[in-house]
Input
Amino acid sequence: MAYNSKPPPREGNQMVFGIRAVIEAILAGKEIEALYIQRGLGGGLLNELKDVLNEHQITGQQVPVEKLNRITMKNHQGAIAFISPIIYQKIENIIPEVFERGEVPLILVLDSITDVRNMGAIARTAECAGVHAIVIPAKGSAQINPDAIKTSAGALYKIPVCRHDNFMQTVKFLQESGLQLVCCTEKTNDYIYSPDYTAPTAIIMGSEEDGIRNEIIRISDHLAKIPMFGEIESLNVSVSTGVILYEAIRQRTPQPPEGGAKF
Output
């Protein structure tokens, strides 16, 4: 079931500083995990950086110079970038390939999961469960850094991660491609056992603070919650993901014949 493409090349969580160095990293095709630009900075070289960012659809975060100085005291010239240790993929390329292999897509969509260790733990479970890809928004998502890689036990090197700027449009693409959208949320009376996960499915998980954005809930095919019987009202999002993923796997796994195996 798993997406068996060649694992992306491994890179360190490399920091690049200096406007020209950042420009060259982008032009060399490096995946920018985070980019910080000094607030109020001007000049011709900065304009060149902005043009490159626009061309490659990369968003930088404007920050005070004090934040840059806390990251490094070297001559950063007002620009610091971090290169992702993985190469992001496009879900538009993965879905057709899964169908062409005769497999039933199982995609995990993470809406604004910002904790690095949760991201790693979720990726580990998803890879073990045979999820074809993880989809995350370009903004408001945890960085894929060495902590995330370590927590994932290396799973983030194996499972495709798709990071998209227009997150809502990407979710709609999944639905238009024939995948049912199953939102794991408390805003329903239906349990996670109700949907038929043997169909092409995208399971959507939200952050523990804000949950899944309303725009996605409104267009979803199923809302499903995990039954809770204790006094604590919620599970950690990585645990919740494991619970619903393995309900999907339970439904997709052929059961042994009645009576069990004979020896």
In short: The radius of gyration is 21 Å.
